[in-house]
Amino acid sequence: QVQLVESGGGLVQAGGSLRLSCAASGRTFSNYRMAWFRQAPGKERDFVSTITRGGTSTYYADSVKGRFTISRDNAKATVYLQMNSLKPEDTAIYYCAASSITYIGTARNDYGYWGQGTQVTVSS
After folding, report:
1. Which end is more exposed in the chain, N or C (fewer Cβ atoms within 10 Å of the end residue's Cβ)?
2. Using CA atoms, how far apart are residues 85 and 80, in angstroms rounded to an integer?
């Protein structure tokens, strides 16, 4: 089992920045590909970004490319999402997820472990 706990969400004005963190415990963190998803009210949970086990390769949804940066610190068993130039449409609950897959997974069912989510609200 892998336990994931997100933090860092909050209320920010459009154009502002936030940094989300996701702390993992339970299994060897470096064995897992990590990802961020988000879910806006009344919508599906959508892929945001993913990072390989070693942190050497990343992939982003087109909607956040150039504004968001995913990173990880395997020594601290933590994955981060730096969010810049935030827009009101970025408002959502943000979830981190872990998987043992070896490909770039962007589907919700590619990931077997999930955190409880952290709310991000961007005001206009």
Report:
1. N
2. 16
